[in-house]
Design goal:
- The chain is α/β, with parallel strands linked by helices and about 250 residues long.
- The protein has a single domain (about 10-245), classed as Rossmann fold, CATH 3.40.50.720.
- It has helices spanning about 20-30, 45-55, 70-85, 105-135, 155-175, 200-210, 220-230; strands at about 10-15, 35-40, 60-65, 90, 140-145, 180-190, 240-245.
- Strands 3-2-1-4-5-6-7 form a seven-stranded parallel β-sheet, sandwiched between helices.
- Helix 1 (about 20-30) crosses helix 7 (about 220-230), helix 3 runs parallel beside helix 4 and helix 4 (about 105-135) packs parallel to helix 5 (about 155-175).
- The radius of gyration is 17 Å and the shape is globular.
- About 40% of the residues are buried.
Length: about 250
């Protein structure tokens, strides 16, 4: 695959300050894209990403906004459009988890996870797709999770949000296909990011033993698939969810 496969493309990556989003933003930059790296609160992390990539000759701009707020998302997309005139790739990656057992989970723990992980996907897709429909082209890549298919106790809110992303992806793919827009999802398994820090280490070790490839994923393991789905190599793929779990779900 050509190392500059995204040259001339404009990519918006949400939740780009850490973990998977950061790795994808970096991978897209190195592949030649102009990246808009969205973040909400992690200013120090996004600054280090932008500074490091600019030193390597990459084109990247940070953009702070809360992607659970419709008016903020509309404003961000309008400003990106005014500056760059097109958005070719959207990666809906922003999200987090707030684990608790169902009987103990409060409404905020449910609502905040659904908003961050699922509502944000709707809002970004709504506003970016309007531009992509006018362009008659675009790639939308949603980051789901193995949790959409393999539930864990204490993660019903997270599993529901990520399962929703899979279903949203399939429906949106049908809706936008006639405009030349492909919508796909990536569902990573256990990835070594900050999100794992709050997870019970015993559960992680037990699941690790069950992974046929014998290790947890790194954020970099997701980048190759994200590049493929953003490139012309995936032009005939839409509505699909690619599971990256080292064989855990087999």
């Amino acid at each position: 695959m050509d190392e500059k496969i995204l040259k001339g493309k404009v990519a918006l990556v949400t939740g780009a300050s850490r973990g998977i989003g950061r790795a994808i933003a970096e991978g897209y930059c190195l592949a030649g894209a102009q990246v808009i790296a969205n973040y909400n609160k992690s200013e120090k992390e996004i600054s280090s990403l932008v500074e490091g990539l600019r030193k390597r000759g990459c084109q990247i701009e940070p953009y702070q906004t809360d992607v659970t707020k419709g008016s903020a998302v509309e404003k961000m997309v309008d400003e990106i459009t005014a500056r760059y005139e097109h958005i070719d790739i959207l990666v809906n990656n922003a999200g987090f988890k707030k684990d608790n057992l169902i009987a103990l989970m409060n409404e905020d723990e449910w609502d905040s996870v659904i908003e961050a992980n699922l509502k944000s996907v709707f809002l970004l897709t709504k506003w970016v797709s309007r531009l992509m429909m006018r362009q008659r082209s675009g790639k939308i890549i949603n980051v789901s999770s193995l949790s959409a298919f393999k539930g864990l106790p204490g993660q019903t809110n997270y599993a529901a949000s990520k399962g929703g992303v899979v279903s949203f992806t399939r429906a949106a793919a049908r809706e936008f296909a006639r405009f030349g827009i492909q919508v796909n999802a990536i569902a990573p398994g256990l990835v070594e990011t900050e999100m794992l820090k709050d997870m019970d280490s015993t559960i992680i070790e037990e699941m690790k033993k069950s992974i046929p490839l014998g290790r947890l994923a790194t954020a970099q393991d997701v980048v190759g698939t994200a590049l493929f789905l953003a490139s012309s190599s995936s032009d005939y793929i839409t509505g699909q969810t690619i599971v990256l779990d080292g064989g855990l779900g087999v």
